[in-house]
Amino acid sequence: QRKHQEIRAMRSQLKKIEDLGAAMEEALILDNKYTEHSTVGLAQQWDQLDQLGMRMQHNLEQQIQARNTTGVTEEALKEFSMMFKHFDKDKSGRLNHQEFKSCLRSLGYDLPMVEEGEPDPEFESILDTVDPNRDGHVSLQEYMAFMISRETENVKSSEEIESAFRALSSEGKPYVTKDELYQNLTREQADYCISHMKPYMDGKGRELPSAYDYIEFTRSLFVN
Question: What domain of life does the native source organism fall in (predicted)?
């Protein structure tokens, strides 16, 4: 915000240049050998810089809001931003569809490999969200909004699954027993949970017999 305000304060200096340019035109001095810049060119660049400042500010506010209200961690937001910059090779502030797909894969999305020209319904459904008009590019703002919404869905889903396990556990304990799993789930589901859940450790670091840590298990499912 401070930097954007500094840029806007410089508008008065651009106005001085524009006034000098107008005075030179009146005096029919149309070629200035002392600078490669034109008044129009400087004004266009200043406008672009002002718009960039507004976009960056909006994007940062969006990220701060996501961190504060949706449960998306600051580390996740940094990872999203760093990955975007990594694939934005030409530093244009946007990714083409192939760069965007590579970026998603690097973030853990299991997108199928398809031959060029072959239908790719899974990726197309993602593009319906981030590039509905198919202009061929995904901006940083569009990308961050998409990643935040997906991460928020994961957070909600994680909480829902955790609540479901808590409902299975008698008295809502932070662990579930082997018997509770087999009583409430199919044998295949219970077998899977038991083989993937860590034994529950109490506050003193002691392992409770036939007790499993469903909270750690649930959160591990949503790492990506």
Answer: Eukaryota
Please check whether residue 93 is in contact with residue 139, taking contact to mean a CB–CB distance below 8 angstroms: yes
Of 100, 80, 71, 78, the residue nearest 88 (C-alpha): 100
Cβ pair 152, 70 in contact under 8 A? yes
Q: Could you tell me how many residues make up the chain? A: 224
Tens of pLDDT, residues 149-180: 877 766 667 777 888 888 888 777 889 999 99
The token duo for 99 is 């760069």
Please state, in angstroms and rounded to a whole number, the distance separating the CA atoms of residues 40 and 21.
Answer: 9
Q: What is the mean pLDDT of residues 89-102?
A: 90
Q: Mapping DSSP to helix (H, G, I), strand (E, B) and coil, where does residue 177 land?
A: strand
- DSSP letter at 75? H
Residue 185's closest CA among 98, 177, 112?
177
- Tell me the pLDDT tens digit for each residue of 17-45: 999 999 998 999 888 888 888 899 999 99
